[in-house]
Amino acid sequence: MSSVSVVLTVLFLSTTWSLRTDQQFWKDLAKKELEEAKQIKWNVGTAENVILFVGDGMGPNTVTATRIYKGGESYRLAFEKFPHMGLLKTYSANRMVPDSACSATALFSGVKTNKDTIGVDASVKRGDCAASLLPEARLESLASQALKAGKSSGFVTTMRVTHATPGPLYAHSADRNWECDAKMPTGTEQCKDIARQLIEDEPGKNLNVILGGGRNSLMPSLSSNPWVCSRNDSRNLIEDYKRDKSSRGLRYAVVSNKTELGSIDPDNDYLLGIFAASHLSYEYQRNQTDMPSLSDMVEAAIKVLRKNEKGFFLMVEGGNIDMAHHRGWAKVAIDEAAAMEDAVKVVMAMTSEEDTLLIVTSDHTHTLSINGYPDRGSNVFGIAESSPYDGINYTTLSYSTGGPNSFQYYVAKDENNETTVRRRDPSLNDTTDMLYNQVAGIRLVENSHGGGDVAIYARGPHAHLFHNVHEQHYVYHAVMYAMAYSSGCNLFPSFTLLTIVILINTL
Ligand SMILES: *[C@@H]1O[C@H](CO)[C@@H](O)[C@H](O)[C@H]1NC(C)=O
Ligand SMILES: *[C@@H]1O[C@H](CO)[C@@H](O)[C@H](O)[C@H]1NC(C)=O
Ligand SMILES: *[C@@H]1O[C@H](CO)[C@@H](O)[C@H](O)[C@H]1NC(C)=O
Ligand SMILES: *[C@@H]1O[C@H](CO)[C@@H](O)[C@H](O)[C@H]1NC(C)=O
Ligand SMILES: *[C@@H]1O[C@H](CO)[C@@H](O)[C@H](O)[C@H]1NC(C)=O
Ligand SMILES: *[C@@H]1O[C@H](CO)[C@@H](O)[C@H](O)[C@H]1NC(C)=O
């Protein structure tokens, strides 16, 4: 046997070995899981710190595909090993399928609201500036509650810092698109754009960490791209941020690239990092930029936040999962989900399960499907099988809705002189390419969100509160309950105090 064939044989054996199918293999796999399950104990202690990851658009099928991408079907992502999990129902006050603004408001402020609105209750219709100004319509977020309890608070995102997911942490807006003054329609002069709310209002100006993109919403700029925000009122909100912190004698740092972020003095109590004109670039293209990764940002955020002995609240958004799904790039979306898992691992290494409630969830799904029946161990971005009706291959991943590039059908004349609609043969393209567009069934402007439940994974104090099928807005209430156990903060009236009041009244 030549050395080449020896190597090939060994390679072949090791591949087949990793895909064992014998009884012992399955039994050992299950026994390991059972041992872990038997070890699970409730942590009824104090959630001093709360870190809430939102994989934007990261539905259960995205998680499954990410798992297969990273290590095959039997692999487990770091957060899939968390002791507790449940599902969240993501419908909003007015829609069966939500957007990120209403779902983030539900997660962070505990009330379901109308699609496309930020930090206000369902009495506010989209675009109703006057209604959004009523104090009773305005919701208070976990970030604000944490600050009130003396904790530090902040967020990290790969999106603009004024975008739909971080917005509800600090802003109240009748329209998610009012990120900058140039996007405010006439008749809304009384309402502040979201960028100004972040820099000028509470709780935005008291957030200890703000890391993400969106320079154009914060500084004078003009863009003809309708998806991009621009500042047209000649204000420089980054300078305003510095002035505010200086005038209050606060220690702060403002950074704009990976190098600067890596060398900040963690003694600073306030950190503003704006790394892109709009959203941050995809992780796989990041090495062509000077932007930090989600992991880099999370590490810097925790270094700043963890100095507070009363603890902290941090929201982390993996926003490009959603962006890539909207464009029909399943591989990019899954690569972004993998990058978010890396950031979860950073948090796991820097915090303790004893005092830190670590939650990984999503705001809504996308319409990604995993189709039958590819072989076990095959490339999740490859071909599944071919259709018996037209003989054309189809990919393992597809979407039910898509933009123009996902709509891979064409009109053909059949031999029998009939006009038919056919799928393009995916085998003619490299389906494993990053920018391959998986086929979609219904043509829209872009791939739409899905309405399925999302998973929530939790470890740390009161993680067991996530245990079955929950409402999405339950997350806020469960986190508040977990934080209220903190000796340093009485977010709920203490029972001891109530007892004393009752006793005094009785006496
Ligand atoms: C920008 O400001 C100028 C001058 O105030 C105004 O004419 C223009 O309409 C504004 N553009 C936008 C997009 O708000
Ligand atoms: C990072 O930003 C600073 C300040 O704007 C600049 O001086 C430096 O050249 C930048 N570094 C890189 C690698 O872009
Ligand atoms: C960036 O990373 C990609 C994928 O790993 C690689 O193909 C590319 O050559 C890298 N580009 C640079 C400029 O390093
Ligand atoms: C279908 O895909 C397989 C690879 O999975 C390929 O070998 C085959 O040629 C494809 N069939 C057609 C008709 O393109
Ligand atoms: C379909 O077939 C008929 C009969 O052969 C022919 O007259 C007609 O032109 C064909 N139509 C097309 C669009 O090819
Ligand atoms: C397939 O390849 C062609 C030629 O490069 C390209 O125009 C097309 O967009 C690709 N299709 C998909 C779905 O990526």
TrEMBL record:
<keyword id="KW-0472">Membrane</keyword>
<keyword id="KW-0336">GPI-anchor</keyword>
<feature type="binding site">
    <location>
        <position position="165"/>
    </location>
    <ligand>
        <name>Mg(2+)</name>
    </ligand>
</feature>
<keyword id="KW-1003">Cell membrane</keyword>
<keyword id="KW-0812">Transmembrane</keyword>
<dbReference type="InterPro" id="IPR018299">
    <property type="entry name" value="Alkaline_phosphatase_AS"/>
</dbReference>
<dbReference type="GO" id="GO:0046872">
    <property type="term" value="F:metal ion binding"/>
</dbReference>
<feature type="binding site">
    <location>
        <position position="449"/>
    </location>
    <ligand>
        <name>Zn(2+)</name>
    </ligand>
</feature>
<keyword id="KW-0460">Magnesium</keyword>
<dbReference type="GO" id="GO:0004035">
    <property type="term" value="F:alkaline phosphatase activity"/>
</dbReference>
<dbReference type="InterPro" id="IPR017850">
    <property type="entry name" value="Alkaline_phosphatase_core_sf"/>
</dbReference>
<keyword id="KW-0732">Signal</keyword>
<dbReference type="GO" id="GO:0098552">
    <property type="term" value="C:side of membrane"/>
</dbReference>
<keyword id="KW-0449">Lipoprotein</keyword>
<feature type="transmembrane region" description="Helical">
    <location>
        <begin position="478"/>
        <end position="504"/>
    </location>
</feature>
<feature type="binding site">
    <location>
        <position position="363"/>
    </location>
    <ligand>
        <name>Zn(2+)</name>
    </ligand>
</feature>
<feature type="binding site">
    <location>
        <position position="163"/>
    </location>
    <ligand>
        <name>Mg(2+)</name>
    </ligand>
</feature>
<keyword id="KW-0862">Zinc</keyword>
<feature type="binding site">
    <location>
        <position position="326"/>
    </location>
    <ligand>
        <name>Zn(2+)</name>
    </ligand>
</feature>
<feature type="binding site">
    <location>
        <position position="317"/>
    </location>
    <ligand>
        <name>Mg(2+)</name>
    </ligand>
</feature>
<protein>
    <recommendedName>
        <fullName>Alkaline phosphatase</fullName>
        <ecNumber>3.1.3.1</ecNumber>
    </recommendedName>
</protein>
<keyword id="KW-0479">Metal-binding</keyword>
<feature type="binding site">
    <location>
        <position position="56"/>
    </location>
    <ligand>
        <name>Mg(2+)</name>
    </ligand>
</feature>
<feature type="active site" description="Phosphoserine intermediate">
    <location>
        <position position="100"/>
    </location>
</feature>
<feature type="binding site">
    <location>
        <position position="364"/>
    </location>
    <ligand>
        <name>Zn(2+)</name>
    </ligand>
</feature>
<keyword id="KW-0378">Hydrolase</keyword>
<keyword id="KW-1133">Transmembrane helix</keyword>
<keyword id="KW-0325">Glycoprotein</keyword>
<keyword id="KW-0597">Phosphoprotein</keyword>
<dbReference type="Pfam" id="PF00245">
    <property type="entry name" value="Alk_phosphatase"/>
</dbReference>
<dbReference type="GO" id="GO:0005886">
    <property type="term" value="C:plasma membrane"/>
</dbReference>
<feature type="binding site">
    <location>
        <position position="56"/>
    </location>
    <ligand>
        <name>Zn(2+)</name>
    </ligand>
</feature>
<feature type="binding site">
    <location>
        <position position="322"/>
    </location>
    <ligand>
        <name>Zn(2+)</name>
    </ligand>
</feature>
<comment type="similarity">
    <text>Belongs to the alkaline phosphatase family.</text>
</comment>
<dbReference type="InterPro" id="IPR001952">
    <property type="entry name" value="Alkaline_phosphatase"/>
</dbReference>
<feature type="signal peptide">
    <location>
        <begin position="1"/>
        <end position="18"/>
    </location>
</feature>
